[in-house]
Amino acid sequence: MSILYLVGTPIGNLEDITYRAVRILTEADYIFCEDTRVTAKLCQHYSINTPLKSYHEHNKDKASKQILELLDTDKTVALVSDAGCPCISDPGYELVNQARDKEIRVETIPGPNAAITALMTSGLPSYKFVFLGFLPRQAKEKHDVLDKWMQRESTVMIYESPYRVKQTVKAISEIDSNRKISLGRELTKKFEQVVTEESTIIEQMLESEEIPQKGEFVILIQGQDESLQDTTWWEEMNLKEHVEFYVENHEMRSKDAIKQVSIDRKMKKRDVYEAFHIQE
């Protein structure tokens, strides 16, 4: 029976792979990966001789078709990313949906994840967190996204390149200079560095190159203290305006916005729904 395996691979240290992952990669008929050169190093380290084929953002449609054709002929395919878990801030979810639509079995072999690894070692609250992946490159769009999510209690997890990390930390400082953040780079590698400080201190450390701008970064932002949140900002809005605020500014569906308004105002969701539609 054909199976599509989603296999987690090390984010740096090649020893961070499971016995099951090595077995699946060895037994699969093909391994599809972002960069065959990167995955070849992992395969060579573990004497895995499975043929490699590329699957990345620029060829995913063509490669997905090829994968589905192989699965239709009872082949097993393993999908990996360069580091970490496929489908997480990487292409792959479309392929999973296509496979499921064809009733092809999909199995996940868990593995390391840079965001979770950074959160574990950061010392920041970990009971509530939100993962945003890579932020927009334009300064205004980046600022707007940060401003939106930094108003919440959840710790925010972001991926960032060494070329834009200073700009992103500066944007965080402009929104809240006292907010504690954690910067993790080169996680699990020889020169791993994790620093947790107020955003302005992190900004200074980047400027002085105490934190070198080398390697991929994970930025964690501590959530806003609940006691500092303004819980009455909506008082001058009517119900329709309150719902529309969430739809327009937080990209919520009206159903979700109505639910959030009912929480804000401590009302029954049904009452908010009826009032919202009466005011339309």
UniProtKB/TrEMBL annotation:
Gene Ontology cellular component annotations, sorted alphabetically: cytoplasm
All residue ranges annotated as the Tetrapyrrole methylase domain in the record: 4-196
Pfam families membership: TP_methylase
Alphabetical list of Gene3D superfamilies matching this protein: Cobalt-precorrin-4 Transmethylase, Domain 1 (3.40.1010.10), Methyltransferase, Cobalt-precorrin-4 Transmethylase, Domain 2 (3.30.950.10)
EC number: 2.1.1.198
Key words of the record: Cytoplasm, Methyltransferase, rRNA processing, S-adenosyl-L-methionine, Transferase
Catalytic activity: cytidine(1402) in 16S rRNA + S-adenosyl-L-methionine = 2'-O-methylcytidine(1402) in 16S rRNA + S-adenosyl-L-homocysteine + H(+)
Entry-linked InterPro entries: 4pyrrol_Mease, 4pyrrol_Methylase_sf, 4pyrrole_Mease_sub1, 4pyrrole_Mease_sub2, rRNA_ssu_MeTfrase_I, SAM_MeTrfase_RsmI_CS
Subcellular location: Cytoplasm
EC category name: transferase
PROSITE patterns in alphabetical order: RSMI
Main subcellular location: cytoplasm
Transmembrane segments annotated in the record for this chain: none
UniProt GO MF annotations: rRNA (cytosine-2'-O-)-methyltransferase activity
UniProt superkingdom: Bacteria
Record HAMAP family: 16SrRNA_methyltr_I
Function per UniProt: Catalyzes the 2'-O-methylation of the ribose of cytidine 1402 (C1402) in 16S rRNA.
NCBIfam families given in the database record: 16S rRNA (cytidine(1402)-2'-O)-methyltransferase
Similarity field: Belongs to the methyltransferase superfamily. RsmI family.
Protein name: Ribosomal RNA small subunit methyltransferase I
Species name: Mammaliicoccus stepanovicii
